[in-house]
Amino acid sequence: MITIKDIARAAGVSHTTVSRALNGSPLIKPVTRERIAKIASDMNYVPNYNAKNLVTRKSNTIGLFFSSIEQGTSSSFLADALKGIRRELDEHYMLTVSGIDDAGSLDSINPRRYDGILVMSQSELDNRFIYHVQSADIPLVVLNRQLDDPSIANVASDDRVGGRAAADHAFQCGHRSIAIIEGKPGFKSSSERRLGYMDSLIAHGLSPNPDYFVPGDYSIESGYAAMNTLLDLNNRPTAVFCGNDDMAIGAMNACFDRGVHIPGDISLIGFDDMIFAQYTNPPLTTIHKSVSEIAAEGTKLLLQRMEQPNAEPIQRLLGSKLVQRRSVAEFASEDDH
Amino acid sequence: MITIKDIARAAGVSHTTVSRALNGSPLIKPVTRERIAKIASDMNYVPNYNAKNLVTRKSNTIGLFFSSIEQGTSSSFLADALKGIRRELDEHYMLTVSGIDDAGSLDSINPRRYDGILVMSQSELDNRFIYHVQSADIPLVVLNRQLDDPSIANVASDDRVGGRAAADHAFQCGHRSIAIIEGKPGFKSSSERRLGYMDSLIAHGLSPNPDYFVPGDYSIESGYAAMNTLLDLNNRPTAVFCGNDDMAIGAMNACFDRGVHIPGDISLIGFDDMIFAQYTNPPLTTIHKSVSEIAAEGTKLLLQRMEQPNAEPIQRLLGSKLVQRRSVAEFASEDDH
DNA sequence: CGTTATGATGAAAACGTTAACATTTATAGT
DNA sequence: ACTATAAATGTTAACGTTTTCATCATAACG
Hints:
The structure is a homodimer. Chain A is α/β, with parallel strands linked by helices. Chain A contains 11 helices and 12 strands.
């Protein structure tokens, strides 16, 4: 392997000069710089990052940590997230991916190993990890889950406006009995989406019906169960807003199993817009949440924080918008435009 | 940050002794080792991997490269793959994830940065990358795609036995007109799956019907289109083996759109057993291919290769087995058991 | 022309480890 | 007790960079 000293020898200068030339130091005469650059490239030089990082006390690595890499349904998250991150990340950065759980001892999470950390968080269980990172003084951005703590940079989708958009859409399609299958209790996203849903109800002068709030936990199975309890009601809702697409799929299956037609008999709205939402039967009307966009935005923020660690941490909510497909029936009704 | 020299001072020994003690050298008296270990842990010591790697000429990093991180439907691959890899990988290894495309210049793929590389490959387009890695002398295992070159370690699912299992199952359920929607032309997996399908036909004395080979490219859309051409046939098949689950979903949608009932009117078998296969309507009978298992096995192999770079590279095919769900109709027919 | 500022380069130290070689200390054999 | 051998520890150099500080030209100024 070839080093700057080899280049130095070839160029007849000191290795210091080579180092400077290659790093674009203004101390080097442009002609020398060019000459050295050429030689380096001819010799196929590639820097040794261990040596480099040792002296600069950087790691050249940013770490992406996932809530729990086990969760089956979160799988497309990963790919999307990586896509978004890579888009913003200079290619010479290394990007490592780990589950929060299998990160091993928290001691291994230190500023020497990570220039910055992104946490793709799904639950409050991650807080221990998050606060460790923060106290270890590693630049940090938490993605995907809305945080209360203003001292932590955060980007997530605006679940509340998303929830509101979902219910608004149902209303605009003429629905007046709109139920909600709620997300996992305790998750911020669950409560925000419910809040948005209620915002809409209130704005339209609909009074919330206790029967129409049914618990779920974001799993397909819980969606299935929840839909069944809804279908058992005497006064069935005409539309139901599912806290995420997974539950919507469960709900669809429940309907199918009981011969309830979507959207003929009941309308469904999801949240997330996973890849599969467009291929369900019928295609699912849902709230689009762009994980890759969140990741990209978060990466930008992280990079900023790495430059200016003392800047005020930013919380950012990315708009979520409705994607209309075919799971919501449109009644002939008054439109309000 | 605390270094071995700090520990040495605290313990009243030389830093070399500390290094040895911490690395479990047999040269150190057990009592001293314990004492030093205790001090190190009390002082919250964590080694500087840059320094370590600099002198040992290792990188402590293994790289996972994906065909193209863009492809939407391959997304669950990622999560599964990571799961499998992490299961085998000592936690002090760093694991980086990149798309083959966004890896930047191939020069950055060198033994200094990667102790070993896993390529989760989907197409022959990856060959350029693969051969670069090989010629850069980095221990390498190619996953997920069956390779012809015996000089490269490789683990993939046994597509041929999978294809055969699919067709066998259809046969055993009484089907005699079995079509195939083929995968992307040129992909090894496509031809292997077709081969397996034909193995079965031949074994059962069925003669292949040219109409029953319809091209696809592994995309949902191509499955949709292919199914339509199949449904246009005068002599429709009673079962169709789809080269992967995505195309099966496309096929399902085509059937639904034309009011063709599954499995009443036509049976469907997929390949891959993605998460969603169990939630389609009806749940999809498919060939289970365990990406996490492939990844785990590949990681083991890689670790071996890193230890003994000169050992004969191993090619390994992991069995694929049928998962029976509800997309295949069972005819009253002779059983052959 | 001599001083001074300035622009370009070089020498040496440092980053935190491991490893080769050297030294000390304990153990054993006579 | 006296070497010979083994076991345990220490010294020093090395890994490939960047950085601090020093040096040497060169240009600018009066």
